[in-house]
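Protocol step 4 of 6: record predicted structures for both targets in the notebook before any analysis. Target 1:
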Amino acid sequence: MTTTTTTAPSTPRTTPLTRLTALGRAELTLLVRNRTAVFVALLMPAAMIMAMKSTFEKIDLKSTGLTVAGAALIGGIGTVLVQAVYMNMVAAYVARREELVLKRLRTGEVTDGEILAGTALPAGALALAQSAVIIVTGTAFFGLDAPERPELLVAGLLLGVVLLTVLAAITSVITRTVQTAQLTTLPLFLVSMMGSGLFVPLEIFPDRLATVCELLPLTGVMTLIRAGWLGTSDGTDLLGAALTGLVWTAAAVFAVQRWFRWDPRR
C-alpha cells in the first residue's frame, strides 16, 4: 500500500503595500463619512487664508521680502498641514483606539508602523492635494511666480506630513476622547500659527524671539516650503530648517515607540 499526503494550499501573504492600501482605503471611507472633519479640512484653510490676507495688509512686510499674497498663501499651506493632518489625525487615532480598532489590527499581520501610517494616508493625501491647489491658485490668480525650487517645496510638504502625523500620535496619548481632541491640539496650533511663520513672519520679531521661534516643530517645515516656492532663504537657513524638522521627527518617533497607547483609556 502507498500513502499519499496532501498539503493544503498555502495562503499568499500580504505585502506592506497591500496592507497600507487596505488601511488607507478603509480610513478614507471613514473620513468621507465624517462631515465635520471634511468641512474643517476643506473650508477652514480658505477662511484662514482670507483672514491672514487682511492681517498682512496691516503689517509692514518690506523687511521680510514677502508680498501680502505670498505670505497669506504660504501661511495657508501651513494651516492645511496643521488642520488636515495634525488635528484630524489626533481625533482619528483616539477614535480608533477607543473603538478597539487599533488593538484588533495588532492581532493580525500588519505592523505597528503600518497601522499608524495607513490610518494617516488619507489625511496626508488630502493635505498634499490642498497644498497643490493653493500653489496653482497663487500662481494663476495672485500674481506669484511658479515655485523656484520645487524639490525643496516637496521636501517641506512631505516632512510636514510625516512630522505632524507623528506629533498627532503623541498628542493622542494625552487625549481621552474625540471631543477633548479640540483642546489637546490647541497649544501646538496656536504656537505654530504665531511662532512658526504661518500668521506672523519671523522677520518682524526681535532677534532673540525669532531665534527661539526657529526651534519650534513646524518652523523648519515652513522655511523649506517658503524657500521652495519663493526662494527667500539661503543655504545655511535651509540646512538649519531641515535639521530642526528631522530632529523633531526623530524625537517624536521615539516618543511614539515608547508611550503610544493602543488600549482604550477607560
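Target 2:
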Amino acid sequence: MPSPRNAPHEPRLARVAALVADASRSRMLSYLLGGEFASAGELAQAASVSAATASAHLAQLLDAGLVACEPRGRHRYYRLADADVAHALEALAMVAERASHARTWASPSRLRLRFARCCYGHMAGQFGVAVFEGLREQGWLQPRAQGGFAVTAAGGEALAALGLDGAAWQRRSQQGGANAARVAYGCIDWSERREHLAGPFAVALMQHFVLRGWLRKRAGDRALEWTPAGRQALGRWVKVRDDAS
C-alpha cells in the first residue's frame, strides 16, 4: 500500500466530475445554464431537494469554483462561475446524449429549447446557429488570424442600423492581444452539433434582441421565442427552417 507521501496525485478533474455526477447538483447547474442569477430556493425547487440539502450542494459547488454567489441584502443569488463552466457542461451533455441525440431532441418537451434558448447569456439552438451563420454570410463577421471573429466595417454599419454601437464592437473585436479572440467566438451547440456565437458580443446581441422585443424570455425558462417583430427585423438574414419553430 503506497504511503500518503508517495500516493498518486488525484487530478482536480476527478473532484469536479464527482460533483457534476450527482443528480441534484447536475439539475442545479443545468438550471443556471441560462446565465441568470437564481436564489437557493429556486435551485432547491429545480433540483427537487430541501432548502438545507440545496445549501449543502451549493457550498460544494462554490468551493469547487463551479458557481459564484452574489449577496443582495439578506438574500444570496447564484450563477455559473463563468463561460468556461457553461461550455464544459454543454460538452458533457453532448457526450452523454451521443447515442440518443436525435430521439432526445425530438421530444415535444425539448422542441422549444431546440429552436431557441439562452446559453449563458447568448443565443443557442437552431436560432442561435442561424444568427451566427447569417452574420458570416452577410460578411458582418470574419475569422481573425489570432482566433475568434471580428466585426467588419460592413458589420459595424449593419449593427448600427439595428441600434447597436457597431463601431465600438468593430474596434473591440479587431484590437490586438489574446483578449480580442474572446470577444466573439464559435461554440459547439448542444442540440445542433454546429457552432453558435459566444462571447461578450454574443451576449450584447441577445440582450439587444430582447430589449427590442425581437426575442422574448420567460422567467425560469431557457427557451426563447422569436417574435413577429423579430421575424420582420431579422428575417432577411436569419434563416431558420419553417418547420423548426
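Step 5 preliminary note on target 2. The two ends are 60 Å apart (CA to CA). DSSP finds twelve helices and eleven strands in the chain.
Proceed to step 6 after PI sign-off.
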